Amino acid sequence: MPAAYAPPAELDARVPMPRGRRATELLMLAFAVAVVLFAYASVGFGLNGKLPSGLPVYGLAFAALMLAAHLAVRWLAPWADPLLLPLAALLNGLGIVMIYRLQQSGRDGNPGNVISTLSASATELQVIWSAVGVAAFVLVLAVIREPRVLQRYTYTLGALGLILLAVPALLPASMSEVNGAKVWIIVGGFSIQPEEFAKLALAVFFAGYLVAKRDVLALAGRRVLGIDLPRGRDLGPVVIAWVASLLILVFETDIGTSALFFGLVVVMIYIATQRTSWLIIGLLLFVAGTYLASVLFGHVGQRVTDWLHPFAGNNATHSAYQLVQGLEGMAYGGVLGTGLGHGQPFWTPLVQSDFIFTAFGEEIGLTGLMALLLIFGLIVQRGLRAAVTVKDPFAKLLAAGLSFVLALQVFVIVGGVTGLIPLTGITTPFLSQGGSSLVASWALIALLMRISDTGRRPAPQPIQDEGMTQVVRAG
Amino acid sequence: MNRALLRVSLACLVMFVLLLLNVNYVQAFDSTSLANEPGNIRVFNEQFQYQRGTIYAGPDTKIAESRLVKGTSTYKRYYPQAAVYAPVTGYDSVYGKTGIELAENNDLSGSSAGLQVHNLISLFTGKQKQGASVYLTISPKAQQAAYTALAAQGKPGAVVALDPTTGAILAMASYPTFNPNDYTTLDGKKLVRIDDRLRAEKSQPLLNRAINATYPPGSTFKIVTGSAAFSTRAVSGPSTTVPAPTRFQLPGSTTVLINNDGESCENGNPPIIDAFLLSCNTAFAKLGIRVGGAALRTYANKFGMNEPDLSVPLPVSPSIIPALTDPDYIALSAIGQFDDAVTPLQEAMFAAAIANGGKLMTPYLVQQVLAADLSPVQQAQPKVLSVPVSSQVASDMQQLMYAVTHNPDGTAYGTASPGVAGVSIAGKTGTAQNGVNNTNLDDAVFTCYAPTSSPKIAVGVIIQGGGYGAAAAAPIAVKVIQAYLGIT
Questions:
Q1: Are B88 and B57 in contact (CB under 8 A)?
Q2: What is the pTM assigned to this prediction?
Q3: Which residue of B has its CA nearest to A370?
Q4: H or E segment at A373?
Q5: Residue B190 Cα, gap to closest chain A Cα (Å)
Q6: Domain ranges of chain A
């Protein structure tokens, strides 16, 4: 944007200060915490007609965590978007509530079967992971005081991201595979899902790389059908990303992650260059890759069959069992839901992880699901808003990439479990059980808030009475 | 870059809109079809998560109730009197339902249209959903007496008792029967084993003989033939004489019809009332030919036969009288043989129609349905099913049936006279030949009502292979009447 210089009419007139809006954030955060506590109490009443015994402890812990996060924002990012923290808190809290509800099914005389993959301390663990997530949130805000700090580590983070992605594929199954998904690093009973962090590292890498190379990538090659094709020699990065995502698919049998990374790369190249041709090339490569995969690998083809015909033959009781249970759970909930604790989400295998969204659908109904989707949508919108506001191209690209990858992740997993697209197993940000996803999601929110803080921070005040010296505000 | 950002924002918007549309489709539009998907474990499991309504016989006898399984939140069905009421209640199992459990399932499970408002209120008051209670017309005294009498004689058979003035079913017992508690197990494999065993049993315990098995009516069908004869003016009154030869060679056939043991029927030309109380076959065979096959069938239909859709609300197998034109077949059909076949319920309906002055009331089992808060959901309204005969003809037939039990020569005088029963009963016996070439043991049939002065109960009894109706069936009917009217 051109910096137009217009001398102020009155030199001593105060430049209007954008407000920090931290009070708004606190109010919204209090509301989010209240909703979560209400939901938690409601689970107790729904299950066995009394308040859950953990309410004071968990409730206080959660409220204290969120207050800490808010205070950190006041101190470290006073100009950040006021909506992001309350929205993230609401999702995180509702996730804990649902994990508590699932953990309690079949336990302590509550209706249903014990979910064999969910331990009796799952809620406790999820609260602890939330604390780690908030710590990561504060740490990111504290360490990265300006987005461009990250730009210095473009290649370091790129390498780190690739290593994180590749490690599970290289490790033996005993150290990397859980329930058929080879996406873990398991060391001595402690497990992390490195792809969640790789996602962030690679977004930083691409932002840095593309800011440097975008002029070259935007150079027009031949023009076909009104579209400027890039030069052949510039195809390198997108092809490398494509091959990498296919390798993830082959070695980690994970279409979801593969789609996520490829989508991230293509969209970031597009934003950096504004060349539609990159989108088309990306889309064609993606379609070709997935088609090839569905032909070459039985499990990918089976996922497509299950998506198209979940009830055909014995699909509903075999390969599509989980999908069908999720759909029937949502149908059982209907428009208003059964009420927390009144549904039967325990029939869906691994409901606490990939399918947690269907558990919400069953118990808080269509109404609740639409609210959840709107919360996700709002986070994405606030992220994109930060991208628009901030002036630094690196920060702009990073915010856009992070927001888009969040939207894509929600689309892939929610679309998958609700039968919109073939099912691929990735976590639902903030909601699914598991520490890696939660910590990475909090870090993502911290990055968005840092960028938003940079974008909304008022320019330094012009110093009065300095004669002709005038600070020129850009834009 | 902001232009590209705008496009990416639009792409994100499209993704979220697609997700929103899709969850709307799944949860608002497709939810019914998903709920009806076979093997939907949630819908299947739901029935054990709340209290199903209780089934009562009369105002306060529980015959089916849901009890909380100790230490769980699962309800299990319990049938306190098991076999006595099995043909009425049926069973409620994880794989299926029968009887009232099936017919009234919508009320018992609390999902009927009439209960939606109650459910909505429970939703907001946080009370658990509860099924409505079903109160049956069954009289526990009559039902207990019917089952005990059937079990005591040991042969397969069934009893139905009706209130002739309303059509309310007072008793519906079948023997041999089963224990519905065997079906309440939540263990699917065990249930299949039990069900397979009961289905394979030769005595057919799962068959509700009272309404789903048909037997030749034998001489009790003379009620229909007599009604047709009076109504068509073929016979003007009870004392009008009718031809009753000792041997009657059926027209166009070599078959010779005789009376029970080949005896003569008085002087061969007795008043119809005597032919009825002695149960002379030749007299009613000839009457049948005289009124004709079509008229006979018309009157039988008016008594409720050949009705494929009768439901009480348990579906009732139709009682059959075929359309006939050959006089020899008509003659046999007129005395309840040939292809005539009736349910024990139909037997009770014969007597009930005559007892109620010619008006046949629609039989029904459900007196009322009360929601969990005791507000009425449904209340029975007695309905006329048909008017088979005029009150004059009904009065003539009452005299005939009265004679069977009051005239010392009557077939049921020995077992159902006022002296034996302690109450004035009117009825008709039947001893029906059956099997190929009539080689099986005769079925014993009895239909009656009491007290004759103002009828309160009509009973139909059929004992398969029981022999003489007067000897095997009538005593059971008497016991049911005594129990119901409180005569000891």
A1: yes
A2: 0.68
A3: B20
A4: helix A356-389
A5: 20
A6: 147-456
